[in-house]
Design brief:
Layout lengths: L1 E2 L8 H26 L14 H9 L6 E3 L5 H6 L4 H8 L18 E3 L2 E3 L9 H14 L11 E6 L6 H13 L3 E7 L2 E2 L2 E2 L11 H6 L2 E6 L3 H16 L5 E6 L17 H5 L4 H11 L5 H23 L14 H8 L2
Parallel strand pairs: 1-9, 2-4, 2-5, 5-6, 6-10, 9-10
Antiparallel strand pairs: 3-4, 7-8
Helix pairs in contact: 1-2, 1-10, 1-11, 2-8, 4-11, 5-6
The structure holds thiamine diphosphate.
Length: about 350
């Protein structure tokens, strides 16, 4: 297990861009929580509150040509990798203009525009690991993974997901194939309401990295600089061809599993161990003179405007008409059209 010095070597410009994604994700998540209470969403709302520092630090290092497989708490990472907030509201409001044409109501949307591949989320825990490994193997077969600055695949997973059989198979294969895979593990201490001591018996989840042939790193998931520094090292190593990487961040989800869950199983003792990454980051950047009060207010204002514009536009768009939609699987559509 390797740990990383927390002292930031990350440029201030990147720290500010990171904060911007964290704030926008928080604003969008808060809006979704409100809409859920108003019974205005097509499904439940699954929030990344408290996990934005890690998530944005993953997405911010990705570039076109990479593959990102976000988890349900990765609004920040999705935005940092280029997801349009309009896609979020179109999906969550069940509009036919959304990526799944109104069939999904929350987190199962993906993006495949040109070189930008954000895999559609599969709910079955662990399944996104082999899906990302398969996508990377496809890239290798096409000759896209040569050299020392290759595309990478990043998969986000929770402590509960790490206990799933599919995750094990994917990690094992990635290690054997030495793929440029970055596994970003958000250990938010809970798998739904199950505490860590009933999810795994190793001392720390990162201890598994060596067993799979990965390089392992840990960080404090509430510390934005630590997340940026650690994810930056992991992505850079994967791009250089140093094989698969695992980052395990310690944090707490500051919401229920979904907005239908009041998280009453979280003990005061557990709550007291973790702060909220967003105000912590704001305070650090302010104390270091990287941003001032007015700059922060501007970031929040811009985020609220972006979120409101996207919400209003999506609200004005039609819901699907079941009698009109060509709701068939991708392959079936190809068969029918003869392509
Ligand atoms: C194979 C499988 N088993 C059970 C579930 C039900 N389930 C959905 S989320 C969840 C907990 C996930 O915990 P974790 O991976 O730690 O992520 P978190 O929700 O804490 O962010 C469970 C058990 C599932 N989706 N897939």
């Amino acid at each position: 297990m390797r740990t990383v010095p927390v002292a930031s070597t990350v440029p201030d410009e990147l720290r500010l861009a990171h904060l911007r994604w964290m704030i926008l994700a928080r604003v969008i998540d808060d809006r979704l929580a409100t809409l859920y209470k108003q019974n205005a969403l097509a499904g439940s709302a699954f929030l990344g509150r408290g996990q934005e520092a890690l998530s944005a630090a993953g997405g911010i290092y990705l570039r076109p040509g990479d593959i990102f497989a976000p988890m349900i708490r990765d609004q920040a990472g999705r935005l940092a990798f280029g997801e349009d907030p309009l896609d979020v509201f179109r999906t969550c409001l069940g509009r036919r203009t959304g990526n799944t044409r109104g069939r999904d109501g929350n987190v199962h949307r993906g993006v495949h525009v040109g070189d930008r591949r954000q895999l559609a989320f599969i709910s079955h825990l662990g399944a996104m690991v082999p899906a990302t490994v398969g996508a990377l193997l496809g890239k290798r077969l096409k000759g896209e993974l040569r050299g020392t600055d290759t595309p990478v695949g990043m998969v986000s997973i929770g402590d509960g997901g790490m206990a799933a059989g599919a995750a094990h198979e994917g990690l094992n294969a990635a290690g054997i194939e030495r793929l440029p895979l970055v596994v970003m593990v958000a250990n938010n201490q809970l798998s739904y309401s199950t505490y860590n001591d009933r999810s795994f018996a190793c001392r720390h989840l990162v201890d598994r990295a060596a067993a799979y042939g990965f390089t392992g790193r840990t960080c404090d998931g509430t510390d934005a600089d630590a997340c940026l520094a650690t994810m930056g090292l992991a992505v850079a190593a994967a791009r250089r061809g140093e094989g698969p990487q695992m980052v395990v961040a310690e944090l707490l989800r500051l919401a229920g599993h979904g907005e239908h869950d009041d998280a009453s199983y979280v003990t005061p003792e557990l709550r007291s161990r973790f702060g909220d990454c967003l105000p912590l980051t704001e305070r650090t950047l302010k104390n270091q003179g990287v941003i001032d009060e007015a700059g922060l207010a501007k970031l929040w204002d811009e985020a609220r405007q972006i979120s409101q514009r996207a919400y209003e536009q999506a609200s004005s768009e039609p819901e699907p008409d079941p009698a009109q939609e060509d709701w068939c699987a991708y392959s079936a559509r190809n068969l029918r059209s003869g392509l």
